[in-house]
Amino acid sequence: MPVPELTPAYRDAYARINGLAIVGEGLADRHFRKLAKLVPEDGDELWRLAAMEGGHAVDFVGCGRQLAIRPDLPLASRLFAPLHGLFNEALSAADPVGALVIQCLIVESFAVAAYRCYLPVADAHAAPITATVLADEADRG
Ligand SMILES: [Fe+2]
Q1: How many angstroms does the Cα of residue 133 sit away from the middle of ligand 1?
Q2: Can you list the domains of the chain with their CATH numbers?
């Protein structure tokens, strides 16, 4: 029996999971950079979080490359578009609380929940990377 990560079903599912991880982490990077400008008194921490999220996106790009899959970025962008739109609305209204709730509560909770579901079935390359990302997300709380 082939190892799970090499089955067509895993690779097909992982293309969508990987797309969501890459787009979600990239979005978090951009959101935290915008938040750093909106809330300059917490800028150091927000810039640090942005850099961390950007690193996660790079790590997940590597996971996709390892399996030679093409991440489904269009699907992920479509799924994240409403949250990104709400974040931009809060930003336009100079509403730091609204923007922080959308990124730090909703987007991050989604990421943690998704990674916790995925981790038990992750392939050997992605599992330790996903575990490290999950620990990073939980550590900031
Ligand atoms: Fe992250």
Answers
A1: 6
A2: 4-139 (1.20.1260.10)
Mind listing the pLDDT tens digit for each residue in 80-124?
Answer: 999 999 999 999 999 999 999 999 999 999 999 999 999 999 999
Q: State whether the Cα torsion 57-18-117-84 is positive or negative.
A: positive
- Per-residue confidence at 32, pLDDT binned at 50, 70, 90? very high
Tell me the pTM: 0.93
Ligand 1 centroid, distance to 41 Cα (angstroms): 22
> What spacing in Å lies between the alpha carbon of 94 and ligand 1's midpoint?
24
Residue type, 4: P
Q: Is 1 helix (H, G, I), strand (E, B) or coil?
A: coil
